[in-house]
Amino acid sequence: MDKWDVFYDECKADGFWHCFLFVPKNRLRDLGCLLRRARKDSSFNDVMHYKNIRRRTPISSRNSRHVELLLSILCYVLQQQKVQAPLRLPGNSYGIENREFGAKLAIFRYRGEWSIKGDQQETRQNIERTFRMGLKSGLHYLFKEGSPTIDNIFVDFDQKSYNASFDDSNLWNRLKEDLNDNISFTSNSNIVPFGKKQYSQDCDISEIMQLVDVTIGSFRTVVIQDFGFTARYKVTEILRPMIQRNCGHPAWKKNSRYYRGFTLSDAWQENGIWRFKNTEITIDRLQQDVFMDVQRVNV
What we know:
The chain has helices at 28-42, 62-77, 120-142, 159-165, 168-178, 204-223, 230-235, 240-246, 250-255, 285-296; strands at 3-11, 16-24, 88-89, 92-93, 104-110, 149-155, 184-193, 262-270, 273-278. It is α/β, with parallel strands linked by helices. It has one domain (3-296). The strands form 2 sheets. It has a 7-stranded mixed beta sheet with strand order 7-6-1-2-5-8-9. It has a two-stranded antiparallel sheet with strand order 3-4. Helix 3 (120-142) runs parallel beside helix 5. It is globular, with a radius of gyration of 18 Å.
């Protein structure tokens, strides 16, 4: 049985971003070990929050270096084919075997107001509805082939915040009704609130949740081209070829080692109708050299 756990975080800036990282259950420990190795190499021993890389944070800081290592690991584990191993980071070899790790990533942005002032019920419905849309679209695209079984979905909320944002029974019932027949859940499937106060360095789940925090912040930096945060823009360079290839010609996507390894999409309402499309990125001068590399290299 092909079992997966899902790790979720969100971002409420420039819309409402939902991030889902799908990890095979039999590789959770491997990923946790990689992330702890990154801590050792960066000498970063605090809880990782992407937002702590501020406008004046130097690129040489330990938290900037740690984000750079995490994103290198992310790019490695998202490869679906033609994997080049071992995973090599500057000055380090992580000794991973030459085979697909198989993780997958879905980032879904609702391009609208996430909060309806004075209407908590409508706000909750917006959060829950777009969460369900993002998870559903990610599962249908990323797992078009195969028959995945979803076990736990770890969400970056404490229990109180989770209860304020989701109607648990409604969410499960609607989600299971909407999914294709090839996608199933275990008998013990559950949504598990896992807030930042629960983070610890000896826990695989905790380390992966921090990776998801970095992932959603980093993708947002690339998509909105946030030049104001120099360190953020620099450490996310590794993501740009992968993202730009995903936004390019369909033939590029199919030839990429990340094909069906990640999806990046937008949704919005227009005259009461939901619209969906792949996220588009304008190529500017600061990205031109990276874009040209994408033309030459089979990313």
